[in-house]
Amino acid sequence: MKLDAAIIGAGPSGAWAAYLLAQQGARVRLFDPSHPREKPCGGGVTGRALAVVSRALSAADFPTVRIRTARFVDTAARGEDTAPTSESGHGSAILLAADALVVASRAAFDGALLAAACRAGAELVAARVRQLGGHAGAFQIETADGGQHTASHLVGADGANSFVRRTLASAFRRDQLSIATGFFAHGITSDEIVIELMCDPPGYLWSFPRPDHLAIGICAQADAGVDAAALRSRVRDWIGRVGFTGYSRVEPYSWPIPSLSGADFETLDVSREGWYLLGDAAGLVDPITREGIYFALQSAQYAADALLGGSTRASHDYADRVRTEIVEDLVRAARIKAAFFRPRFSRLLVSALAESEPIREVMADLVAGTQSYRTLRWRLAKTMEVGVAWRFVRSLWSGLDR
Q1: CB of 14 within 8 A of CB of 7?
Q2: Quick one: 119 and 249 in the same domain?
Q3: To which H or E segment does residue 12 belong?
Q4: Separation CA 308–CA 331 (nearest Å)
Q5: Distance between CA atoms of residues 365 and 46, nearest Å
Q6: Are residues 94 and 53 in the same domain?
Q7: Could you read off the pLDDT of 261-289 as tens digits, one per residue?
Q8: Which candidate in 57, 218, 318, 326 could, as Cys together with 61 as Cys, close a disulfide (CB 3.0–4.6 Å)?
């Protein structure tokens, strides 16, 4: 009997799962009333994420900006710890490999993946799902336009506010979410990302260049006691401190992002009999960088593999693989998260990047997503012959040992 799957959400994880399943002859229906759409985030797509989808599309299939440098700044630095000056302005810049990171319009990137899924044979149902029922082998799906559908397998790829998660598992608590908010600065772009770590509340500010604008923003835990309006005010101040000029207008945005603790990851519920959660809906986001596209695509691949394998334990196989190949590293990130956002670490990071080539190499790989947290301590330890780098390592040591 032909594999029959309903996928709720046509973002990267849903579209990629649909492509993989449809390519193998499965009957796939994608439910989403709004994709492709612009998403308020940095829009960075790492080389390893592009490699996952390379059989269906490449960076040539949608407009991108190749990121050449990542600049870390400390605009609050004072006295002897003041951030050194680089050619691109205050802060320390690192060069990225040619294939390390591109930034895309999410509407364009998501649209390219969705088009690939539809070409492979997936059916897009452009309607919001308002009710789910049933169990493995007979899920019932009701859409807002009155449509009635059934499917043997159900995939939730509908983001941080996942309706599938809320219905079949439990919604993320406020302390398990971050707020990402800021502005699209229209009329200017660049080939450099700019990042500043902050401690109150813990998080970071960023500027990511899109093809025709900058996405400038901030992220912090949703339960940190600072609302989106106050965070956007900090972004406005930061725009002036860093010196962004020349934009024609700014457009505000806000978006929730899962940001789980180590304990949350260790008890994460991503599948049960007949249903699967992918990407943001599963909570698979780096708790430090808040990068999630790679994990969205990776989890889609694992879910498709489990479904196509035909095992009666497909849901268990998927959960085990996610835990082994994704969650174990994210647990490590969650455990050192607090150390990353301490003021001393921020100052030492900018200094270490200016003075230590090994530290620059580590951070370049961390930005590109190729440096795992599993081996981070080992790579940092190799730099200890450089004085400032050793101070940098020590500032993280307690977090890495937890």
Answers
A1: yes
A2: no
A3: helix 12-23
A4: 28
A5: 10
A6: no
A7: 999 999 999 999 899 999 999 999 999 98
A8: 57
Q: In this structure, what CATH number is given to the domain that contains residue 318?
A: 3.50.50.60
pLDDT digits (tens, 9 = 90+) for 165-203: 999 999 999 999 999 999 999 999 999 999 999 988 999
Residues 12 and 109 in one domain: yes
Can you tell me the distance from the alpha carbon of 126 to that of 183, in angstroms, rounded to the nearest whole number? 28
> 């605009």: which residue's tokens?
75
Which of 71, 81, 79, 85 shows the shortest CA–CA distance to 344? 81
Same domain, 144 and 53: yes
Written as one letter, the residue type at 243 is G
Give the span between the Cα atoms of 349 and 2, in whole angstroms: 54
- Split into its structural domains, the chain has a count of 3
Q: Residues 6 or more apart from 141 whose CB is under 8 A from it?
A: 6, 8, 31, 129, 131, 132, 147, 148, 149, 150, 151, 154
Co-location of 27 and 139 in the same domain: yes
Structure tokens at 82: 């003041």
Q: Which two tokens stand for residue 53?
A: 């989808």
